[in-house]
Amino acid sequence: MRRVITLENNVKRELPEDVMNDMKLKPFASSELGHPEIQRTAPVVRVTTGQNKVVDSLEEVIKSNLKDGMTISFHHHFRNGDFAFNKVMDLIIKLGYKDLTLAPSSLTGVMNDKIIEAIKKGVITNITSSGMRGSLGDFVSHGGLKNPVIFRSHGNRARSIENGEIKIDVAFLGVPISDPAGNANGQEGNAVFGSLGYALMDAQYADKVVLLTDNIVPYPNTPASIKQDQVDYVVKVDQIGDPDKIGSGATRFTKDPKELKIAQMVNQVIVNSPYFKDGFSFQTGSGGAALAVTRYLRQSMLDNNITASFAVGGITKPTVDLLEEGLVRKVMDVQDFDKGAALSMAQNRNQQEIDASWYADPHNKGAVVNNLDVSILSALQIDTNFNVNVMTGSDGVIRGAVGGHQDSAAGAKMTIITAPLVRGRNATVVPSVETVVTPGESIDVLVTERGVAVNPKRQDLIDAFSKVPGLTLVSIEDLQKMAEKQVGVPKPLEYTDRTVAIVEYRDGSVIDVIKEVKD
């Protein structure tokens, strides 16, 4: 067996030296990124005088623009209602292209089977994405892809596109409405999904931009999220997406007693922090506990006559309800997670569509996440150094996404992780996470149903919370021991020496690698 030479980064993760050198990667050093001067790149532009870009044949567009070895991109705003991805990939596979790099904003379950087929046929040999789940995550975790996947946060993807690390040759972007010139948005049509925030990077920087839509309207279509000066082709399709699978109406609140208890404790943490004052800002997730936090926070804001300056992130109906009530002044919207939030964007001018760079790029002139007071995030695992894993399960298999986790954690003044002590027979609080995605230096508070652990570096928060009746403060080491006592010590996972995925930090440095799971 060959000896694998490794490097160690600043969160004590061993990184294979050969992979790091071959891919010209640098190890993670710190969440403090400084103030570098960055040179932006620009797309190749084909000058167009005519404004009717509607073409009949998607196949002809692919033939005339795609070559072996190129990079193609898609967005994930349609989620599991996406019809565009498989429609394009069917043709690319049929036409026999090879060695393509797939660079979507993220991957959803509806794409998995087609990607696996493309990998097996040599059509796709590289992937960079925010995450992957299901059969594709299992396939990659067991060595199915030729080269390591690169996982990037939403802010890091924007950064990588803007500085040329990800060079998109052809972007295929599904939209619910467009005019013949390519002015498009996500707010109108049959398959409304709201903000086009992640696709806006592709539209701005890809050499060729192909819109797919089932709804072409007279020129000019406004508001225009994607603009005609960015678009090369508009392809009419029968149906671009299934609106019933994009998102439901009002997102359901959890009824799980454990999640409700966690949500109540999170609200106590926020209300008793130094940041809960008029004009504070926050980001919540879309899970059951996070949505319950929004409900409890609403009541606390009413009780204390407090209005938030803005909410940001993946937006849900409960968040836009706060906007409608006047409890939140602005919503900075990069993605909508349900139909209620998506429909609201067309009706409320204070729900501002933002792109991924504006949201979270660490190398621009100021991202929205840098103005966050409170960020509430989840975790698959968190360890006693407060490092968080949102990428791999307790079996080592890829089943998550970086998303905006690293970005909002780094930007917020107080980052709260919500997690049950155990899930099933697996501990959530562990001595060492399987995969470090967000470094512990960015995490301030962990809230579980068994108590609240505050990062020792935040003595100010420890002092504030220790005075709160009913709020149980415990060390994260004690939480880990409680979890271990409940579920026992798991057998160590077995991996091969082969690297199947690289997890970048938001500045492009490598915070961890994921090894192939042994069968």
UniProtKB/TrEMBL annotation:
Question: What are the EC numbers?
Answer: 2.8.3.10, 4.1.3.6
List the catalysed reactions: citrate + acetyl-CoA = (3S)-citryl-CoA + acetate; citrate = oxaloacetate + acetate
A Pfam family reported for this protein in Swiss-Prot or TrEMBL:
CitF
Query: Which processes are annotated in GO (biological process)?
Result: acetyl-CoA metabolic process
Q: Which UniProt keywords apply?
A: Cytoplasm, Lyase, Transferase
Q: Cytoplasm: present as a keyword of the record?
A: yes
Molecular-function annotations in GO: citrate (pro-3S)-lyase activity; citrate CoA-transferase activity
Spans through the membrane: none
Subcellular localization: Cytoplasm
- Which cellular components does GO assign to this protein? ATP-independent citrate lyase complex; cytoplasm
List the PANTHER family hit by this protein, alphabetically: CITRATE LYASE ALPHA CHAIN
Q: What is this protein called?
A: Citrate lyase alpha chain
- Record organism: Lactobacillus gigeriorum DSM 23908 = CRBIP 24.85
Organism placement in taxonomy: Bacteria, Bacillati, Bacillota, Bacilli, Lactobacillales
